[in-house]
């Protein structure tokens, strides 16, 4: 920092103010300091900056089931956003999701001196545990659903489902069958609700949903049942892994996709574009959820009172070869 101050012709304190983004620096002085920083390749020491600001410059993340695509991508998005903000991340991964486990994980991170904690909580048990969290530290929930009582960031699961169901109906399908996610998951609940809302709004019949557990095997088992029902012309699976299982079952039973039945999923896993046929699905912007959750934590650290929660992140419909008009 001394070398930066010397090259820029300013005091050590001025360099510190620029690096901490203080508004009490003239624009021309800030520019001169930043040029010196770039020329010297100076990198501020995070620990030293933390001592000045009385922050550890570390956030904690409580997560679980990181082998699942959604939670794993959410964790990666949060870590990227934290790094971009100059923060490190400590992670506690839970094997079991219950009240005691979530509270213990938050306590562990608080004892490590993190400035705030993000809890990835798509399971309803985790969301319920968040309602009894202690006052410290600052906590932001991710994918915890409504009514959790904490600041939160999330994807609009209901609207994302509406996008894919409306797409299938607009192709001319009389209704859309649904392979739902497991009980106890907020995302499964919201996607089920979004499916029902979209069918109701279109005046389409609502078939009985089938339950899966997010796995390709459960989608395969549901697909074997659906393949024997001639009235089925369109299927929406609550995630791409279950959609993959449906495709396998249909192939075994001689059901042609999309000529006989259209199939769509949710998540847009990397393999979705390379399935046979390529899968129509819904893409979630996990990086944007990560950015919003970190931005919300930073605002809470700087605020004396409550701050406005970010709007839900609207996902994107990705149309591929697995969906078409019925009877093509």
TrEMBL record:
Segments forming a coiled coil: none
Molecular-function GO term, any one: DNA-binding transcription factor activity
Transmembrane segments: none
Keywords, ordered alphabetically: DNA-binding, Transcription, Transcription regulation
Domain HTH lacI-type: 1-53
Family matches, as CDD domains: HTH_LacI (cd01392), PBP1_LacI (cd01574)
Name of the protein described by the UniProt record: LacI family transcriptional regulator
Organism of provenance: Nocardia terpenica
């Amino acid at each position: 920092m001394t070398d930066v101050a010397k090259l820029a012709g300013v005091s050590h304190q001025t360099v510190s103010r620029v690096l901490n983004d203080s508004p009490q620096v003239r624009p021309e002085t800030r520019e001169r300091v930043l040029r010196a920083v770039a020329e010297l390749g100076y990198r501020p020491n995070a620990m030293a900056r933390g001592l000045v600001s009385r922050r550890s410059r570390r956030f904690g993340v409580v997560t679980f089931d990181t082998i699942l695509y959604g939670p794993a991508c959410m964790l990666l998005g949060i870590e990227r956003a934290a790094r971009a903000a100059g923060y490190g991340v400590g992670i506690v991964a839970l094997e079991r999701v219950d009240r005691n486990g979530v509270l213990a994980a938050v306590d562990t991170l608080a004892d490590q001196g993190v400035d705030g904690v993000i809890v990835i909580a798509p399971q309803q048990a985790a969301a319920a545990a968040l309602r009894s969290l202690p006052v410290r530290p600052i906590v932001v929930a991710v994918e915890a659903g409504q009514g959790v009582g904490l600041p939160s960031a999330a994807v609009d699961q209901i609207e994302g489902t509406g996008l894919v169901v409306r797409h299938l109906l607009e192709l001319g399908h009389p209704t859309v069958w649904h392979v739902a996610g497991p009980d106890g998951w907020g995302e499964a609940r919201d996607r089920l609700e979004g499916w029902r809302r979209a069918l109701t709004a279109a005046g389409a019949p609502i078939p009985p949903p089938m339950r899966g557990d997010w796995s390709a095997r459960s989608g395969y088992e549901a697909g074997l049942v659906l393949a024997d029902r001639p009235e089925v012309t369109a299927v929406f699976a609550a995630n791409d892994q279950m959609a993959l299982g449906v495709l396998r079952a249909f192939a075994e039973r001689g059901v042609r996709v999309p000529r006989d039945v259209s199939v769509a999923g949710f998540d847009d896993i990397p393999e979705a574009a390379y399935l046979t046929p390529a899968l129509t699905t819904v893409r979630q912007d996990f990086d944007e959820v990560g950015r919003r959750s970190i931005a919300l934590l930073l605002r809470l650290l700087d605020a004396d009172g409550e701050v406005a929660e970010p709007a839900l992140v609207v996902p994107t419909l990705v149309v591929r070869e697995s969906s078409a008009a019925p009877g093509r």
